[in-house]
């Protein structure tokens, strides 16, 4: 999962220029593994300002506690589509919203655009005014079907395209209610999208994983929020030791990188 390394080659030059005061000065986590509450995140704009200019191909996912950004290299399709999973209230939607807002700060619409499919469009109020946003589409509306179909068609015919498109789906389970043509197009985007400049980022309530088991194999890369139920945590995570029950809801996530768990936090959307 080289493209998810916090110091992968695209960001190396930028990170070498950061000053020593970038390292967090807050108290270290307690021995229980739970981060002290005083480790509240900075705002997104302040966090990005600390990191300076990020590579054009880098999608910002969060900030690690070692002071480095968590980045996805959009030019490297190896990680495949991204699954964001955790309990209800773990911050899955907040993570997607932060990623969308970071896109508008870092990237021009000619570089990266995003579209949102959600059962709760009111949670995304104001995003449609963003120039990088292709739209907020209610899951239950025909426009959501059309967006997936059109995005798949674009991916089939974008050989000379330089722009990246992010398909943000807030709740994978809701996709199982769509018609067969739409589901087939979505499956193709999960399989081939990152190779065709379309990156699906999809959320899933960990307790509802049994409803979408046939879809889960498509996600090699997973970001985990807090999961209090130990059985659910073991079922959804690839290896032990993640400590998902210790993560701060709405703030902390972990990813598995080279068989090691890396904890990171998401900046405030204000």
Question: Summary?
Answer:
The protein is α/β, with parallel strands linked by helices and 270 residues long. 26% of the residues lie in helices and 23% in strands.
How would you describe what is shown here?
The structure is a single chain. This protein is α/β, with parallel strands linked by helices. It has a domain at 78-265: P-loop containing nucleotide triphosphate hydrolases (Rossmann fold, 3-Layer(aba) Sandwich). Helices cover 26% and strands 23% of the residues. The protein has 7 helices and 10 strands.
What is the element layout, followed by pairings?
Blueprint: H1 9-16, H2 44-51, E1 58-64, E2 69-73, E3 82-86, H3 92-106, E4 112-118, E5 133-138, H4 142-156, E6 164-170, H5 180-192, E7 198-205, H6 213-216, E8 221-224, H7 230-236, E9 252-257, E10 260-265
Parallel strand pairs: 3-7, 3-8, 4-5, 4-6, 6-7
Antiparallel strand pairs: 1-2, 1-10, 8-9, 9-10
């Amino acid at each position: 999962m080289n493209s998810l390394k916090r110091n992968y080659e695209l960001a190396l030059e930028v990170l070498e220029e950061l000053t020593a005061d970038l390292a967090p000065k807050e108290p270290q986590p307690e021995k229980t593994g739970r981060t002290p509450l005083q480790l509240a995140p900075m705002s997104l704009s302040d966090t990005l300002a600390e990191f300076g200019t990020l590579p054009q191909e880098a999608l910002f996912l969060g900030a690690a506690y070692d002071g480095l950004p968590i980045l996805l290299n959009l030019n490297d399709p190896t990680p495949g589509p991204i699954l964001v999973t955790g309990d209800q209230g773990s911050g899955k939607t907040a993570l997607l919203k932060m990623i969308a807002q970071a896109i508008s700060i870092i990237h021009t619409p000619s570089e990266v655009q995003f579209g949102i499919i959600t059962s709760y469009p009111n949670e995304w109020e104001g995003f449609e005014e963003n120039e990088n946003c292709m739209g907020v589409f209610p899951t239950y509306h025909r426009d959501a079907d059309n967006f997936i179909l059109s995005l798949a068609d674009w991916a089939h015919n974008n050989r000379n395209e330089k722009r990246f498109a992010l398909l943000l789906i807030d709740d994978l389970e809701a996709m199982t209610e769509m018609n067969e043509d739409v589901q087939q197009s979505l499956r193709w985007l999960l399989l081939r999208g990152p190779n065709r400049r379309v990156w699906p980022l999809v959320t899933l309530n960990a307790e509802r994983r049994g409803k979408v088991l046939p879809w889960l194999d498509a996600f090699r890369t997973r970001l985990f929020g807090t999961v209090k139920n130990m059985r659910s945590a073991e079922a959804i995570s690839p290896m032990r030791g993640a400590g998902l029950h210790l993560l701060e809801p709405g703030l902390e996530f972990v990813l598995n990188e080279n068989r090691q768990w890396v904890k990171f936090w998401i900046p405030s959307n204000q």
